[in-house]
Amino acid sequence: MSEVRFGPGGVPEWLGPSVRFCSRCGAELRFGPVEGEDRDRLACPACGFVFYVNPRLVVTTLPITDRGEVMLIRRGIEPGYDMWAQPGGFLEIDETVRDAAIRETLEETGLEVEPETMLGLYSRVPAAIVVVAFVARITGGRPIVTRESLETRPFAADQIPWDEIAFETSLSAIGDWVRLVRPDLPLPDSASMQRDFGG
Ligand SMILES: [Zn+2]
Description:
alpha+beta; Nucleoside Triphosphate Pyrophosphohydrolase; 2 domains; 3-stranded antiparallel beta sheet; 2 helices; 10 strands; binds zinc ion
């Protein structure tokens, strides 16, 4: 896993520019000790507002066909443009994890799914995300191309394009699925699973 570098604001460098000012009073936030907190925080010296920086939840599915293949999308946006991943996206504030899994899968693939078992939870510290992956049964719809995807197609467990998988969390989730359905198959070693970007 690549090294996590935190900027002067105590937040990941890529996130720093978007958390400069207090969202309550507009003063400039400062990073440092805050009374009652166990670690340095980004806080407002004018009004005392503490800006907590925490990872966000990404909800994904591995949609499984009747033939036992997994549907992946070739991404049409960065990060991971032109590489493969399972459908998913950020959990919205007004929905359950299950609703998000169904919605994101439909939006990105055109497939209606029924999330069944939870495959795993995958932390990706540099991207400040936690990814949850569900195994999901395809119940309807048909594969579509969207603004976010160049292609949606099924892969059998022994056809996974490991070198073209976009994210470390996707490699972990798809690897866990392969281990479940085809424990006899070899998996890529951890060195070849490193990715510099995204999830
Ligand atoms: Zn303030």
